[in-house]
What does this fold into?
Amino acid sequence: MRHGFEDEYNSEAYLSLLDQVFYMYYTEKRHEARDEDFESLQPNAIDWRMKDRLKTVSAALVICLNIGTDPPDIIKPDPCCKLECWVDISAQPSAKALENVGKNLQQQYETLSFRTRYKQYLDPHYETTRKFCTSLRRSAKEERILFHYNGHGVPKPTLSGEIWVFNQTFTQYIPVPLHELHAWLGCPTIYVWECNNAGNVLRNLERIVERDRTIQDMQAVKTQVASDCIQLAACSEGQLLPMNPRLPCDIFTSCLTTPIDIAVRFYLGQNTNQTHYLTESTVSIPGRLQERRTPLGELNWIFTAITDTIAWNNLPRSLFKRLFRQDLMVAALFRNFLLSQRLLRFYGCKPVSSPLLPELYHSSLWDSWDLALENCLCQLSDILVGSDTEGSMRSFRHSTFFADQLTAFEIYLDRASIAKEPPTELPIVLQVLLSQVHRLRALVLLSKFLDLGPWAVNLALEIGIFPYVLKLLQSAAPELRPVLVYIWARLLAVDGSCQADLLKDNGFAYFFQIFSSGCALPPSNIGFDYKAMCAFILTSFCRDFKPAQTACLNIGLLESAQIQITGADNPLLRQWACLAIAELCRGYTKAVLHASRIGLLTDLCTLIGDPVPEVRAAAVYTLASILGSREKAINFIPLEEFIVSTTISQSLLDGSILVRRELLMFVSKLSETYRDKLEAILLASILYGDGKTAQRPLNTLLACVVTSAHSLVWSALLVLCADPYPAIASASQLILAKFLSCTLNQWVISGIAALLRKRSLRTVLPGRRPLSSGNMVPYPRQLREFPWLYKYRWNMASPRKPIRNVEYYEHRLGQSTDSPGENKSPRSNFLEWCMRYFQEPQMRPPEADEPGSIEYNNRLWKRTRNERIILQTQPQKERGAKGSWDALQSQVVNRALVSSLLFHQFENHLIAVGIDNSVSVWDHKRSLLLNRFYADSSPSARVTGIKFMNEDDTALLAVATLDGVVRIYKNYESAVRIRLIAAWQAGEALPTHAASDNFVCEWLQGCGTMLTAGDFRTIKIWQAPREVCISEIPVRSPSSVTSITAEQVAGNVFVAGFGDGSLRVYDRRTANRDGMLSVWRNHKSPILSINMQRGGDRELVSASKDGEVKLWDIRYSQPCYGFKPGDKLAAVSIHEHAPLLSTSAGNGEFSVWDISNVDSLERVRQGKRCKTVSSPLAMNITALCFHPHRMILAVGSVAEANLSVFECDHWSK
It folds into this structure.
């Protein structure tokens, strides 16, 4: 093996390197983002807040029993039910019984809503009913009223729905028409009909409400919504209430107000064998409803969770929000209404409601309720019969319902499908947050659910999670901090409307304390940088919210963020610390001045050189926000000049599209601020830029009004107009066009246009040399109306159309309807794009790393295929020098003459570059054209290099053009899916030699670096993860680089060939000025190709245009051996792994040479000529390329079928 690589390649370090994960480049989120992703980035947040939240402030409890007198239309059996509100009305005097019934009913309702004002109306007469109904509406105003009607002592409602009350002497039943009752009570109202034939009342009242709604719609009256009328009826039309003596007479009311008591009685009645030791009269579950650790409180808690979950999983979201989240009283009644559906159906009754609810008694969660109830009742016998009641209570075993439901929720999360099906346990998780026992586990599971994406966050907000997590910010428990930070980051990433809520109780201070503290958080199941999340939360808090900006400035957010951007190791934290500063200072002059005083602006400038592109872009975004937020009266020009010069000089030629996009926003903001200064620069360029006038008047004129910062902004805007990334270039051109339109319009009005008529409109940018007319190309279409810009970039000049005079622009501007005030700067969406990080799953591995996923399986298949190809081609390499190379595999017609070729290592892709700068992608086995595209529409942008990246996986195609630009394409083989993911100025912006026509590159996959060189003084080393030039090694040659190659493993040593025939070896591990190790001057003509094999013996082969071919070892100053296959060479290619070399003099023949038979390094012997093959049409050959593994050679020629693929016949002798 050449160059002494044996020891290095056989070392343990190198072998372990081969076993490591294969790194891919240009696959980050910033490369996956499309241009349209920056236009609409906000997720579809739902309207989860209850804007029309209501309260049931008043309640009328109307009880018409007339105890002792049965209604005439009801025949009661004997025995019959006797309990009304759990009061035995037959065991007490009538008046006392009626009073106790009313008292109990009010107490039962108070367990649902204690703040509601209740008023009992016992056996009322008509006039009393009218008065108290109208009085309730006056006192309630626009809030909700509860009207509970118990009609067990009056006849059934009439067919028209009239209910009955009494006259003053209790000698007659007086009907109350529903339309009058509805007029008295108005809306919003909730009616509870506890009477026979209650469904008839509900149906008739619905008709009245619908009629009123229609009248309001016709009159277009904007009053309280007439349809906000809710009804609960004990039975359907024509049905009678059950009169079972074991049941209360008002069983429907019992279900609505005392669900636990009636559920226990129902369970005991249905399961007499299992609970024979308990009777309905002896059951009294100890505890209080509000205390969840007592048996009664735990049952009530479980019942609430189950009924809430049943409704959530079966009702439309809008109906659920209205009935279960708008009003506490309504929510409690409808939860208990679900129980009435289950119980009353056993007794032939069907409770109904308006709005109509489906029958939900069949839900499987009712089985969980029965289990919880049985667990409680089984232990209740020990408590009731035991002598030590308090001791028995302490030994009470709590239900495992919530723990089991959390386990089910955890199983759902482990198997969460892509279908985005909502989990059935989500409302139960919400209830678990009320328990300190399960709270931490519930929060962790909730954070995992929110991690699924914005749809999960919307579901959690819709179910009502926000008040709970807001309340938890007042908790001092340290174990809750990590998970609360994660949950809040997810919430704010989807819905940023929570700023006022965080400010109200100083909830933002919870996150500021974590962000600014130096201590680490307690360990958590979520292993993320919580400080970065806190920075994001504070950023969202300050965004376009002046009270939040003031609060964060007073609490010291700028000082804390300054510490993070200078000392944080995590790039995500540095990024969001910058963005927090940006949102705090945006439009807030006081914060800008404070940032300037503490030296924060200087620290931000240092971040422009950060190794992470997102951090660099965040720094530019922040500086743009700060400079764009200052008032014109504020003067800190020296610092501003430093910021402008640092930002533009370091970011203008940044390799990251993301950074240059933000630089454009930075320049756009400053172009508005410096408008008058830029107009002066433009005017001076037109007046003195024709080359006939000395430069001194120009400098004198500009020095009076502008500074270097103004000139830099103008220069940067012009350079960005020709950015290699189309979206940046078009946006820059639009900004410039608006500026020029406004400026020209002002000049025409002020009479400056008369001066312009005397001057040529063709000017140059100060400090740049104009190009010769032979090197001019059309300028982008958007700027053709402004011809003096044609020379502002080194590779662009006058258009194909003749230059128009000033009158033409006066005429066009006279027709313009745009005013200067309408020319607003474009808005950056960088913050919204960064927020997507917290909208995407972070707890799960990427799909490509998830076993079983499509992408994972595809990658695994590719890896297996690649290994198989390598193993299959190993024997071919030994026989490649013995076979015949005249077997034609395929032959196609490329649209243009081929100038260079490139095989993919594992796919059947052959890239052919035409002399018209087209890039064609062929399937060489099927002779099929897959795609053809142009890297640049400019004729001067000749394609000078093509390289594959990430070949072991999904390959990318890097295309280098003569103007020094490198473009990287994804899905290059598809005309539909091809996409430009990276483009940057990899070479010098301005050539140093007049005869410049070289720009070459070399990609090193092993270390993720790209070498670029050409007709400029340095070799640039670009690092793909950073997307910056990390080193510039002087070439130390007056000639231009024509070819470059490098050792592929470590990438430290590389060799460049020059136009003067010299070869130079460089080592990037040394200091830049000492990077050149040696010079070889054995060639006498320009180097055509220099190439070091990836495998095999790592042969280093150079070829010059005069036909000389030499093999080198970098340890020696002389070639190992050499030969001359002809008087000249037009094309040459070396096999990456086999000792084969192909050459052609361009005369229609190519030769394949065996370069392996060398006895020793000291003995130089000519390589053996294996075979000379004539092309079919004996036309000139323009390109040669070996397949990296297979014995295949592609040949491009000047022929009708100008692209041929030959393969070696291994059985030829």
Notes: The first helix runs from residue 6 to 9.
